[in-house]
Specification:
Structural class of chain B: mainly alpha
Shape of chain B: globular
Bound molecules: iron/sulfur cluster
Oligomer: heterodimer
Order of helices and strands of chain A: HEHEEEHEHEEHHHHH
Largest sheet of chain B: none
Number of helices of chain A: 9
Largest interface: A-B, 25 and 35 residues
CATH topology of the largest domain in chain A: Rossmann fold
Radius of gyration of chain B: 19 Å
Number of helices of chain B: 12
Strand content of chain A: 5-15%
Structural class of chain A: alpha/beta
Chain lengths: 228, 295
Amino acid sequence: MKNIEIKTTQQRTNPLANVFDRFMQFCQSRSLFMLHYCTGCGAIELPPAMTSRFDMERLGIQPMVTPRQADILLITGYVSVKTLKRVILTYEQMQSPKYVIGICSCTVNGGMYWQSYATAKKLNDYLPVDLYIAGCMPRPEAVIEGLQLLQNKIANNDGHSWKDYFQNYDYYLGNQQHLFGEDWQTPTDIITEAKHYGLEAEGTYGKHTELLAKHQHPLQPLPLKTNN
Amino acid sequence: MSWSELLAELFFMPAIAFVVGLFMVLMMRKIAAKIQRRVGPPFFQPLYDIVKLYQKDTQVSHGLWHDIGIVMAVGGYIGAEILLPVPGFDGIADKGGIITLSYFLMIPSLGMALGVGQCANPNGSIGISRALTAMLAYDIPFIIVVFGVAWHFQSTSLVEMVEYQQVHQWGIFEMPLLAFAGLFALQGMMGKHPFEIYVAPAEIATGPMVEMSGKYMGGLFVMQSFQFYTAGVLYTSLFLGGGENWITFLIKCFAVIAIPISIAYVFPRFRTEDVVRLLWKWPVMMGLIGLAFVM
Ligand code: SF4
């Protein structure tokens, strides 16, 4: 088990810049687009949370359908090994700042699928999870309370665990390779992105990224051809 | 008009349009919420969304045309705003007229097509091909309406049309059939249900918007507020006598926008071919009959 150490960004010295930052964080916390990856049974509690009974939109949270537009990746239930690959691809395509929420006990520790050979047990081994909402399955009230917790975190300049994926990429990649095999590669080049945005740290590189570099083949554009 | 006045108008007209457009977006979301028996978003939600989107730390650009496409999408509407006369500001409306405006209204869709094309996402390509088909569908009745109105007022200048209506009576009483056909075209133009198959979130993942992230999506949100404002003001100028003052003008604009939105959220959507069939049949028919009456 690894302890996530999140380095919060420094407060700026200029008071006006501070006010500006606070405003930006407030806007970020009050507008969250949610991509709900309905992996398991917990997904069934989301429709009531979104529709007229509990209405998430009054908190500024609304569903979005593509990873590019979304801020929150909501994993609702057990993650099988096959699904986890898709979850990781989805997560890597999202634009930072991005947040991961694990709903259901199954994402926390495997839940009732603990003995299954086909499910990933702990989500935070593979992705930096901001928040878990435990329960089998959690009620919409619990989901909404969890989302409010996340909003408070963001508004208090505390929602930076997405940086951990860049700064400790080697750790996450190691766990992914352990599960998917050594030649595991995603279309998004996390190391180049980390370099580009200045998010590298010691943990970005390691023996797992070396292994990745050995197997990595550059992405080719798809061939242009019709189906005949 | 002096240069400084003109520059001030060129700045203030899009700025006002943006703010009013944000309120229109808020109204849309509130109406949707009320129809679905929800509370709906807080007052500043459209603003939060746009600020949040422009705040994203990482951005994905798929190339130069992707960037230019968004600029065209927003720029087309900004260009349209200064051609729309509002109380107190005429901008360059007397120079442009409604024909120039019709061209400007096509630029955003074409810009989107360029930008989305470079994203190389199949969902986006499907979406934009549907969007352009829908544009073809609603532009035919729209052009018939524009032609009929211009013929009736014997002018292509929006300023003159508004002046005529304020002296005589509103266009909607003189050309009710054209006004109704115009309302149909408006529904298509705003891309709302039942004509929003090209967005179709559950099937093609918001179509043209599928690869838009961060500031690109922010650009599209800005575009949406301009789009609502443009649609409202254009219809008000053609049929509801434009604006005598800001209060009645804004009431009219908001009322116009509220109609398609209220219709939108109680309908599912038509398929693309049905959109074309429907829009080329009923509004075109009504428009042509209305045209015969004004000729
Ligand atoms: S915690 Fe319970 S409800 Fe949630 S995915 Fe696991 S078994 Fe299903």
